[in-house]
Amino acid sequence: MTIRAPLALPHSFWLHLVLPRAVILLALTATDGLLRLDMRLLYALLAADAVFFIWQVLRFQASADSHLRGMGGMTLIWGGYLVLLISGFASISLWWGSFLFAAQPETTELFTDRMDRLHAAQYQLSLSDDDTALTFNGTITYGLTKRATELLAANPQLVSVTLTSIGGHIYEARGFANLIRARGLNTVVEGDCSSACTLLFVAGARRRLAPDARLGFHRYALEPGPLLPNLDLAKEQNKDLAFFRAQGISEAFLMQMFKQPSSALWYPSRQQALQAGLLVQ
Question: Is the pTM of this model over 0.70?
């Protein structure tokens, strides 16, 4: 039986140590954060790499021993040990990263996506069975105008918007109201339509209340949260008064509309709403 002699130390350094370990490290680096593997497969690959690393150490050590017996110097041997040490730590770090990545949830939700989802959960926008009416139910909040724009663009056959809302973000209400007015849609209230919701209602070409529906009005106020030092509430109210006026609402009603404190609501009677021009058949 022929016993294979150890390779010369320089050859062993490159063929047994540097080149194969470099290939493995490059492969781990290239797939880091890109390829999510099953944990069982990762453990199997880690075990295989550990066995291969031990083989590398043994082959290099055999060449080093042969080199010493031939009275060779220690420089290349110490260089090989240094490469083993550095590549060992690098391998452990990369394998650890692969395991951390594999343990993460399949999808990590972006903050912006999470906020969009949370805002959208505060209201419902749905089409009627015949696709001619859009129903809005819930709080007027961020993203509503964008979603309403998409629905209106995709459904040119829409003729009306049905509303049930306690109000919400006035800027989003203005955006949705402008869409309703631009499309010439009719508005219908079922239940209560209060605060910023009234802006949506008055934007309708024809406007009516269901038998038990109510419109609620109050003076503007800042919501809890970051303060907006440059926000002028009186100016904001006047903007919406101008919108109501442009929709044919009487001056007498406009004088009364924002008198109620923000902590309460004024619900005009159906007769008052009719006389004010809020209801248009």
Answer: no
